[in-house]
């Protein structure tokens, strides 16, 4: 019984793949799963130990944290855990952070903007002005139509009888 060449090539390729997964010599069981050694818990414990050594205190009641980047995006944390050590000038913000554009957080973020974000705010305003540029021409036509409407004085019925 002859095996076609492509089937034999596939069998040889498969055999070569399984040669490297044996834990011992020929005749031993194959390793079924590669064990990945991850110790995230130990990393977290070490981090907490270092933070404790710095003397950080938890700050309650912070609803959101926004970190402004130079490219105009914002790293936004909703309901983060914030810890601070003023003496060590260390602030720890932990939680789920999202990268958002500045436009997505407006207008609630305006009071947090500093002078360094003024350029980004101007860029956003120019974008809105350009988008509403066609609507500005329609606004002028509405102003002309408003001139036909008389101003109401003390008695509006006298004006309507004219």
Describe this structure in words.
The chain has 162 residues and is of the alpha+beta class. Helices cover 42% and strands 18% of the residues. It contains 6 helices and 6 strands. The chain has helices at residues 5-19, 40-54, 102-105, 118-131, 133-146, 156-161; strands spanning 57-59, 64-68, 73-78, 81-85, 90-94, 97-101. A 3-stranded antiparallel β-sheet has the order 1-4-5, with no helix packed on it. A hairpin with a 4-residue loop joins β2 and β3 (73-78). The longest helix is centred in the N-terminal third of the chain and has 15 residues, at 5-19. The radius of gyration is 34 Å and the shape is elongated.
Helix content: 40-55%
The portion of residues forming beta strands comes to 15-25%
Number-wise, the strands total 6
DSSP helical segment count: 6
Structural class by secondary-structure content: alpha+beta
Q: How is the biggest beta sheet arranged?
A: 3 strands, antiparallel
Shape: elongated
Main-sheet strand order equals 1-4-5
Mean pLDDT level: 76
Radius of gyration: 34 Å
């Amino acid at each position: 019984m002859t095996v076609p060449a492509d089937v034999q090539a596939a069998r040889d390729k498969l055999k070569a793949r399984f040669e490297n997964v044996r834990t011992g010599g020929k005749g031993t069981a194959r390793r079924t799963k590669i064990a990945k050694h991850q110790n995230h818990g130990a990393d977290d414990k070490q981090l907490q130990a270092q933070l404790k050594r710095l003397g950080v205190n938890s700050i309650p009641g912070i609803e959101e944290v926004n970190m402004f980047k130079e490219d105009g995006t914002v790293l936004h944390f909703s309901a983060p855990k914030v810890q601070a050590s003023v003496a060590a000038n260390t602030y720890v913000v932990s939680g789920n952070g999202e990268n958002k554009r500045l436009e997505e957080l407006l207008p609630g973020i305006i009071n947090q903007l500093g002078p360094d974000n003024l350029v980004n705010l101007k860029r956003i305003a120019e974008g809105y002005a350009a988008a509403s540029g066609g609507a500005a021409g329609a606004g002028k036509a509405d102003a002309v139509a408003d001139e036909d409407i008389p101003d109401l004085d003390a008695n509006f019925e006298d004006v309507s009888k004219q």
